[in-house]
Amino acid sequence: xxxxxxxxMPVYNxxxxxxxxxxxxxLFTEDGKQYLDFIAGIAVNALGHSHPDLIAALKGQTxxxxxxxxxxxxxxxxxxxxxxxxxxxAERVFxxxxxxxxxxxxxxxARKYHWANGAPERVDIVTFSGAFHGRSLGAINAGGNxxxxxxxxxxxxGFKHIEFGDHETLxxxxxxxxxxxxxxxxxxxxxxxxxxxxxxxxxxxxxxxRGALLIYDEVQCGMGRTGQLFAHEWAKDAAxxxxxxxxxxxGGFPFGACLTTEAAGAxxxxxSHGSTYGGNPLAMAVGNAVWDIVSAPDFLAQxxxxxxxxxxxxxxLEDRHPDKxxxxxxxxxxxxxxxxxxxxxxxxxxxxxxxxxGVAGDNVLRMAPPLIIDQTHVRDAVSIIDDVLSAWQPAD
Length: 396
Hints:
alpha/beta; Aspartate Aminotransferase, domain 1; Aspartate Aminotransferase, domain 2; 2 domains; 7-stranded mixed beta sheet; 4-stranded mixed beta sheet; 37% helix; globular
């Protein structure tokens, strides 16, 4: 471990590169080397790096007011909440600092809803294998990944984990003890797997039939990433009762939100929940700017167009390397290549060649580029991956 990192808690193992600045879809190291950024802070930098509108919004606020806490009203938060509720299923918004905090708020809201409606026994949260809902104690128990639970004591009660795609077990699991079904419309960490639109519609119907709430985690797949403002909007009659958002909503500034219907959120009254920094003036200034850009129909149409170009490029890699690539996965600009071997060597080789990508699940090379990429960026990325795959000799 280098002296520069000796006091950092070693829960991450980053490569040697140190990035000094970013511009659009590119990052630059201290020595001036340029990288094409196709992971965007793990789907965070939705508008790329150093977007002028976001810089202007943040600078405009820094000279005025940074922090109040929720003891006082923040007009920017009220404005953004109005915009969100006008455009989505939501009628209530709670602003957080992160996606994990949005998840915690969602879990509490679901259980409080049933308690307030005379069914305190309804506490179970049904989730799916491959899910990732954050790193807090509650979130790792919701996700159920043994690797994230190891060493943190006994599993918390009240969570049921269903194998992804197992409809029969899901049907049996949602019963009179179920508070909510909790799902990512497109799984990120679990291998960039999109739930079929018909399944989201059926899931909504199942929750209605059984009296359970439906919670979506759109922290990674939301905010325009699939070409709709939120991924569940591709499906018919599949709106949730509660939704967690973060990452792209701040365009790089840390904040998230828990969105609810009026009915689902009604039990959350003063004292039920709180956040010192959530909805602070700086975050809300940036959030309003991001929302105004990404929610515009023309912007989302451009995302859908470039997503089709991206899909075509990745399909060409599948066709060119059938001995190494199993297929293309994901949706929109949350996508990836399923490889026949562990993807880490490919990720490392792409970085050495000037392309930043991620990994997901056991065998997926994950891409979540800024939503402002163009065809040149896609061609450059596909070309680099093509060269890397050509040179790669996967382990048996």
